[in-house]
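Assess this:
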Amino acid sequence: MFNGDSNSNSESLLFSLTTFTTALFVLEFGADKFVDHTAIVAARTGVSQALIGLLTAGAEWEELVVVVASIARHRSSLAIGNIVGSAVSNILGAFSLGLLFYKGRDGLVFDRSSRIYSALLLGLTVVVAALTAWKPADRGVKRAVGGVLCAVFAVYVASIAWAISRGKITAPEGSDSDSDSDGGGDSSEATSDSDEEQTVRPFGSSVDSTPARTNGNLETSPLLQTDIQSPTKPRRNRPPRHTLWYHAAMLIVGFLAICASSYQLSYAASAIVDFFGISDVLFGVVVLSLATTLPEKFIASISGLRGHAGILVANTVGSNIFLLSLCMGVLWSSTDGEYDGESVNNVELGVLVGSTVALTLTVWFGARWSRWIGGAMVAGYVAFIVVEFVVVRKV
């Protein structure tokens, strides 16, 4: 598409870059609407708030749509690069910011559920990395493995729902893209609905924003926690400002915005890759993954600043479990593990496993050195990007 004169090529590149940038804003808008109104619809219809909170705390629906759009456009190499690159970026580029932004005197304290889920993520990452590097003689094997990964995600969600129903854990406080950006009517509507049933509060909620101290240690929010009403502030019984149909319609609008923007991202990314002649994997691992994980970086920074260690872990761990189970499962089920171009190599898989090991060790043993670890992770992420361009892919 870029075989014309230089002016035509420049205009095509400018259009692709503009489309890519615009799609990011639409993606953020769609994610906010989808999360906010899903929570309200769940409260109105009696669907489990805990399950809704889980799916919005660590779900990467925009990444899934990017993967599906890439597969539809026969750019499966872009999809595998985006999955692995986003998983690395969630740890080295987002979790690290949360560690750096923490301002408390004492080190971050990670609760038992944070440790459990970080260990589960490590196990899943090792298995998926090994399967990614494995090239079976029978192409149908990867399709079957993809189906198993999708089933693993379903079991993961079901197990969380069961544990919540048994009272073993509680619902998430934050969400993947849930922020104050929705503003005004929707946030007040969520507050109104919470008078009848618990809802997932926006991340910037002031409720339980000050960590409590237990036995002299700073106790941060758990990985999955409930919305607690302040005893000094009476409940306000206000009628809902909008009907259920309004919130259902806005939920659909948000989801359609996610789908449309993700398709635009995939299309624009393919055009940019073709123009510069770089590989789909490189663009997916570095540029596309960096762009699509911007919401995670924002949430991680704020959670670290406010001392919400549990939300920091939930944001990272939940996102990576989503990527490596559902997104990778859909990719392998659709392609048999055969890509239109290159695949990720052992260096990139090694960085993925190594960064996950670093996250798990930090949650289990390294909380007191969290700020130093965060700085090391950021430096490692910059080094990873440089090595990708200069050594691994040799652009």
In short: The chain is about 70% helix and 0% strand. The chain has a mean pLDDT of 75. The two ends are 21 Å apart (CA to CA). The chain has one domain: 18-392.
